[in-house]
Amino acid sequence: MPRIVEGDPNNNTTWVSNLFVEDGSYLRLKVLQIGYQLPQQLLRKAFIKNLRLFAQGENLFTITNYTGIDPEVGTRNGFDGGTYPQARTFTFGANITF
Predict the structure, then answer these.
(1) Half-sphere exposure of 8 (CA within 13 A, CB side)
(2) If residue 96 lies in a helix (H) or strand (E), which one and from where to where?
(3) Do 62 and 71 touch, CB atoms closer than 8 A?
């Protein structure tokens, strides 16, 4: 690695280099949703036409050899950082039709 000195007579800080470039390929499970629609025989007594329960997960896992924060986030000034990695989110809910 070249050393940085005052005045930089060899232009070490202006040369383009791939020394710190690494493979950013990855495999990510971005969104997974599972749901169950209850049978209408159970719902008639409660005057409900349709009831669906669901659970959803986002960014559940990422497989990569990338050593940075997140292979999908943007860079700032050529370095990994400046943005946060994507959050893992869990959502539970119901769709009800009366």
Answers:
(1) 7
(2) strand 89-97
(3) yes
Written as tens digits, the pLDDT of the chain (98 aa) is: 666 677 777 776 677 778 778 888 999 999 999 999 999 998 988 899 999 999 999 999 999 998 888 888 766 655 666 677 889 999 999 999 99
Q: Compute CA distances 88 → 9, 14, 16, 74, whole Å.
A: 48, 39, 36, 18
Q: Within the chain, what is the greatest distance between any pair of CA atoms?
A: 85
43: left (phi over 0), alpha (psi -120 to 50) or beta: alpha
Helices (H), 1-98: 40-43
Q: Is the pTM of this model over 0.85?
A: no
Strand-pair category, 89-97 with 79-80: unpaired
Nearest to 55 by CA among 31, 38, 87, 39: 31
Q: How many CA atoms lie within 13 A of 11 on its CB side?
A: 4
